[in-house]
Amino acid sequence: MRVIVVGAGVGGLTLAQGLRQAGIEVVVYERDGELGRPQGISLHIDERGASALRACLPAAQVAMAEATMGGPREQTLTLSEVDGSLVVASRQPADGLAGRARPGRQAHRPLLRAVLLTGLEDVVRFDSEVTRFEQRPDGTVRVWCADGRTDTADVLVGADGIGSAIRRQYLPDVRVVDTGRRMLMGATPLRAVAGTGLPDLIGDSPASLRAGDTMLVLGVLRFTESPATARKGWLPGLSPNAVAGVEDYVMWALPTTQDRLGAAKKPAEVWHRATELITDLPPALCAVLAQAWPEATVALRIGTIPPPRAWPASAVTVLGDAIHLAPGFGANLAMRDAHHLRDALAEAHHGRSTLLDALAGYENTMRRTSFTPAKASA
Ligand SMILES: Cc1cc2nc3c(=O)[nH]c(=O)nc-3n(C[C@H](O)[C@H](O)[C@H](O)COP(=O)(O)OP(=O)(O)OC[C@H]3O[C@@H](n4cnc5c(N)ncnc54)[C@H](O)[C@@H]3O)c2cc1C
C-alpha cells in the first residue's frame, strides 16, 4: 500500500510516522518550507494527543517529546488583583468534565513539529503545494502539485489544515465559518519575569485574568529536561537548530476580534497591538507582554466547521483541521485522527479488512467523536 499525505502539520506527521512504523509506504507533500509558518508557540497536549504520539512514533521520538513538555496541568486558575498584588481567586479542576479543559502538559509547538519530522526526512517534500487530485478507474488517486509534478497512490489523505485544498475538491459542501474572533498569542522569556512572583504563583497551571472586556491567558513552560540535553540523550538525529536558544518561557494568549486587531499583520505589529489592548490589566501582566519576543507573536483566526453529513468512503480521506476545528484542542484531535487512521490502514494492509471498510470505519469514528465537543470548543 502507498499513501500520499498532504500537509506536514501535527496530524499529517503523526500519521506518516505511524504508517512507517506499520511498514506502509508514505510520502508527505508540504506547501511550506522546512521551518513552516508561525502557528503559535505552545500546545496543550492532553491524553488524546499523548496516546497518539506513543502509538505512532518510534520510542526515541516519544521520549524526546515527553522530556521536553512542561509539568502536569491538573487545574486552571483564575487570577485577580488585590491591593496591587496578583492572587489566585479560584481554582477549577482540569478534568475534561462540563466543558472544562482536560488535564495535560504544555508542549513547545515548533520543537514538537521538529521531533515529528525526525526520521521522515526522506519522505517529506517541502515547498510542494498540492492543488488537485483525480480518482482513477483502477482505484488509485493521482495528485498534482502547483509546479506541475504528479504522484499516484492507493490512498490520499488531506491533512492540509483549515484551508484544505483536498476538502474543497472532495467535500465542496463543507463550510468553514470565520467567527471574526482572533487569538493573539506570544511568549516571554521566563527569566524576564522571574522576579515578579507570577511564575511561582501559577506553577504549571494555565491561568487567566479578566478586566472588563479584556482577558489574558498565561501558562509557564519549564522544560522537564533542557531541550539541548534531551536531544543528546534521546534523539541525536533531531536537527540541532530545533533546540538552539530554546528556553523556558511564559506563553500568553489574548482573545480578541478582527475589528479590535485592525490592520496589524506582521508579528511585531501584532505584538504592539496586543500591548495596546491590555492596558486595563494589572501592571504585572502588562510587563509580561512588554518583555515578550515580538517576532514570536501571531494572530490566529478562529473558525468553525458545522458538522457535515456522512459521505461514502473512497480512497480519499481527511483528518484534523481539514475537516473539524477546535482551537483549544484541535491538535489533539488531529493526532487522534492520525492514530485511528493509521490503525485502520494497517488492518487493510495486513488483509484483515478491505481498504474501503477500513476508511469507512475511520471516518465514522472521526465524525462521531470530533464534532461532539463543539460546545467545549466554544
Ligand atoms: C489560537 C489557537 C490556539 C490553539 N491551541 C491549541 C492547543 O493548545 N492544543 C491543541 O490541541 N490545539 C490547539 N489549537 C489547534 C491546533 O493548532 C490545530 O488544531 C492543529 O494545528 C491542526 O493540525 P493539522 O495537522 O490538522 O493542521 P495544521 O497544523 O494546520 O497543518 C496543515 C499543514 O498542511 C499544509 N498545507 C496546507 N495546504 C496545503 C497544500 N495545498 N499542499 C500541501 N500542504 C498544505 C500547511 O502548510 C500545514 O503545514 C489552537 C489553535 C488556535 C487557532
Overall radius of gyration: 21 Å
Mean pLDDT score: 95
Oligomeric category = single chain
- In spatial order, strands of the major sheet run 6-5-14-15-16-13-17
Question: What order do the helices and strands come in, and which of them pair?
Answer:
Blueprint: E1 2-6, H1 10-21, E2 25-29, E3 42-46, H2 47-56, H3 59-67, E4 72-73, E5 75-82, E6 85-93, E7 104-108, H4 109-117, E8 124-125, E9 130-135, E10 141-145, E11 150-153, E12 155-158, H5 165-170, E13 177-189, H6 190-193, H7 198-202, E14 207-211, E15 214-221, H8 227-234, E16 249-257, H9 258-261, H10 267-277, H11 283-290, E17 298-304, E18 316-318, H12 330-349, H13 355-370, H14 374-377
The structure holds flavin-adenine dinucleotide.
Flavin-adenine dinucleotide binds at residues 6-12, 29-32, 36, 39-40, 43-44, 129-130, 159-161, 165, 183, 185, 300, 302, 320-322, 327-332, 334.
